Amino acid sequence: MGIVAQDAIKQFQALIDEVDEPLQNTFRNMHQGYPTETLMRFLKARDWNVAKARKMLVDCLNWRIQNEIDKMLAKPIIPTDLYSAVRDSQLIGLSGYSREGLPVFAIGVGLSTLDKASDHYYVQSHIQINEYRDRVVLPSATKKYGRYIGTCVKVLDMTGLKLSALSQIKLLTTISTIDDLNYPEKTDTYYIVNAPYIFSSCWKVVKPLLQERTRRKVQVLQGCGSDELLKIMDYASLPHFCRREGSRSSQNSGNGTINNCFLLDHAFHQQVYNYIKQQASNLESVAPIKQGSFHVDMPTPDPEGTKIAKTIESEFHKLEDQNRLSNSLNGVSINGD
C-alpha cells in the first residue's frame, strides 16, 4: 500500500471516529472486524477522495439505521410459498469458491422473471443475500483460507434474455443502485456467459458509459465460459449453466438438479433460510414476526445509472422495432410466395 493510500485511510478513519455512536455501532456490524479494508472499499469507490468517501459511508450508515439493515437477517419472507416464489423468479446461488477462496455467486439474469412478488420482496431478498454474504460467507472464507477475503466473483448467465426484460429495468436499476451506494467494491469480477445477440448489442453501447474501474471488472466469455472459468476455479465450483452438458438452461442441468444452485433445496439456500429463521426466532421473544415485506427506502439512481438504464431501454426498443420490421417483411415474403 502506497504512502498516499495510507494517509487517505488515516484521514478517513479519523473522520469516521467522530461520527455518532449509532453510526459507530452499525459500522462495526458492517465491517465485521475489518474496518481498514471497509474504509478502503469506500475510498476506491470515490477514487480515493476522502471527503467524498466520508459522505458516501455516512450516507450508507444512515441508510442502514433508517431501514434497520442490521436486523435484515431476522426478517424472513413469509409465508414459505412466497419465499419459494421469490427464489424461483430471482435466480441467484452460491456455486462454490475460486481457487483463491472467493465465493462464486451464480446469477440467472436471462431467466429471472422478477414477477411473482412486489418489488419490495425482491429488494429485501437481494439485501438479505448481500448481508448473509458479508456476515457469514466471507468471514467463513477468511477463516478457512487464513487471509482476509472481502470480495466475491459473480457469473451472470444471459440464457433466455428477451426484449420483455425491459419491464424489469427499473427494479434492476434500484437493486444496482443499492449495491453501488451501500455495498461498493464487493465484486472482484463479473463474468458474462451464454450471451445472446440481444446482450451483445446492448453491451456495445453500454460499455463506453461505464467507469473504467467497472469496465475492467466485466469479462464477456465465449459460450458457457467453462474454459476460462476453469482457470480460476475447480469443476465442482462451476455454476451448472457453465457445464457443457447443461449450458442451455439456467434452471435445468444435464447433471440433474443436484448441481443447480438456484433451487430452494440447494445447500446454500437452505443455510440462508435456516439462518434467517434462527435469527427471527431469537427476536420473536421480544416482538412477534409480522407478515409482509420489509420495506426499504428505494434509492434514487445517480445520473450515471439513469443514463445507462435509459440507454439499455433505448437499445431494447430499437431491437424490438427491428424484430417487428423483420417479422413484417417475412410475412410479406410468405404471402407473396
From TrEMBL:
CDD domains noted in UniProt: SEC14
Top-level taxonomic group: Eukaryota
Alphabetical list of InterPro entries matching this protein: CRAL-TRIO_dom (IPR001251), CRAL-TRIO_dom_sf (IPR036865), CRAL/TRIO_N_dom (IPR011074), CRAL/TRIO_N_dom_sf (IPR036273)
Family annotation (SUPFAM superfamilies): CRAL/TRIO domain, CRAL/TRIO N-terminal domain
CRAL-TRIO domain location: 82-239
Alphabetical list of SMART domains matching this protein: CRAL_TRIO_N (SM01100), SEC14 (SM00516)
PANTHER family: CRAL-TRIO DOMAIN-CONTAINING PROTEIN (PTHR46226), PHOSPHATIDYLINOSITOL_PHOSPHATIDYLCHOLINE TRANSFER PROTEIN SFH2 (PTHR46226:SF5)
Name of the protein in its database record: CRAL-TRIO domain-containing protein
Organism for this UniProt entry: Tetracentron sinense
